[in-house]
Structure formats: structure tokens, C-alpha cells
Amino acid sequence: MLSRAQVDAFVRVHGGVLRVAYLADENGRIVPFLDRLLRLVRRLDGRSLDTVAEALRRQERRVRDASRLAGISRALLEWCEFASPRGAEQLPVARQHAFAARGSAWPPVPGDSLLPYMESAQSLGIDAAELQRTLYDDRPGARVLLSVPDVTGRALLARYNLELARGVLRDAVRVELLARGGWRDVFRAVKAAGLMHELVRSGKRYRLLLTGPAAAFLVRPTRYGVRFARVLPVLARAPGWRVRAELVRDFRASSWATYLSWLLPRERSPL
């Protein structure tokens, strides 16, 4: 999910109404650029998360708005699959042994810099020099890129706009879901996420009222918000879907409560 800074830069409030500046490919240049980003990430298969993130950050020279690129990059990285390197789960114990051995052999003898790592390296079945190089490969940034979604730049554009919507809904107290169909999947997602909800039927149509992550009575709002965020991608597959939400937040030093109503740009949801 996008950070608040990556969302707030594209949110405007006027007259109690919130508007989200979604990204649209009006001049036909954005989707080709996103296609190039996807090709760049695919060429980095097997590299660390830090390496991939830095490669995306360096594309700032090609764009006018670095805030947009930061949000798109985060959406893309969260869409990719990363995994810890081989043997990363044993590194905490290996570090303890290496630090203990290095402490007992202090000060180090010239030429014996790998001596503290030898015992731990043998237990892992690797070379001492490799253990010294990969001693902290269990950190999040060292995770290795396994796969990139087989999608186009247009799908990435839709994914980014969807992440903007999810970022706004973190401050929702009450959310109303509307759609012309696809309710079975929506109901299943709401129940699977364990969200507090009320279903209102009006003729052949439904209105689904959800308790938002910013409700004052929630005991664990962060955990509830994570579950809540799972519902919007399912709703985005429904035909003619809309979201109407009551938002409460300290925004730019002024507290406001407003009803948000929006329809994402008509890009096919990639989810």
C-alpha cells in the first residue's frame, strides 16, 4: 500500500468534497513509459529488492513528477514476488557465532579476517568469504526478485490508481459500496476479511455499508485496515462499481469530515 506522502500529494479538498488526481494517459506517453519500467524490472530477475528499487528510483530523470514515480514504483514492487536468499533463516545464529568468535580473537591478526566466520560457514555449507559477504542477507532489502507479473503498462496504470484509492480509504469511518453486479465475489471478500458490514437491498440492487479503518471504536485499526484494503481490488472487478465514503482526518492542519464519491479512470483492473 502507498504511504501517506505518496497519496496526499494527489488529494485535494474543496468545499467538503475530496478529489483524487488519478493518473491518466491523456497524451499517450505514460503507458509506454510504464511498459519500459516493467521491462527494466524483468531484466533484474534474481537481483535484490534494494537493487530493483534503486533502478526504479534512477528513472526520476525521465519524469516530471518524482512523487508519481515513487508511488508507481512502490505499487510495482509490491506486485512482484520476492523471496529471502538461500540459508537466510540461519543467518541470525551464524551472526551470533561469528560475533562471539570475532570477540574472542580481538584484536584480529592480519590475514585472519575470515577466521571468525569459518565455523559458522562450515555449518551452512558455504565458504567463509561468502558468509562474510552475505551476513545480513536476511534483511528485507536483500530479498531476491523471483517473478514480475505478466502485465502491460496499462494494467500497471490501473493498479497504481487503485492503490491511490486504497490509500484514501485508510481514513474512512464509513464506506458504502455500490455496483451493478458481481456481488457474490464482493460478499465473499467482505466475509473473508472479517469486516463489520450491513447489507441493504433496494429492489434488485444492493448497497453494502462497511465500517472503515478510521472508526473510533476499533481496537486494532491497523490490522483492520489491512483486511479492509483487500476488498477494494475485488470490488474493482465488479461492473459499474462506485465507492462513497465518510472520511475523517487531520489534513493540512484542519480537521474535516466529508463524503468521498469517485469512480476510478476506466482502465481495466489488473486484479
List keywords for this structure.
elongated; 2 domains; alpha+beta; disordered C terminus; single chain; two-stranded antiparallel ribbon; 271 residues; 9 strands; 11 helices; 5-stranded antiparallel β-sheet
Secondary structure: elements and pairs:
Layout lengths: L3 H5 L2 E4 L2 E4 L9 H14 L5 H9 L8 H14 L1 E3 L7 H14 L10 H10 L3 H6 L10 E4 L5 H16 L3 E7 L4 H11 L3 E6 L2 E7 L9 H9 L1 H5 L6 E10 L2 E9 L9
Antiparallel strand pairs: 1-2, 3-4, 5-7, 5-8, 6-7, 8-9
Widest sheet, order of strands: 6-7-5-8-9
Our count of domains comes out at 2
Total strand count, please?
9
Beta-sheet strand percentage?
A: 15-25%
**Helix coverage percent of residues?**
40-55%
Largest β sheet strand count, sense and barrel closure: 5 strands, antiparallel
What class would the helix/strand composition place it in?
alpha+beta
Q: Could you name the ranges where pLDDT drops below 50 across 5 or more consecutive residues?
A: 251-271
The end-to-end span amounts to 14 Å
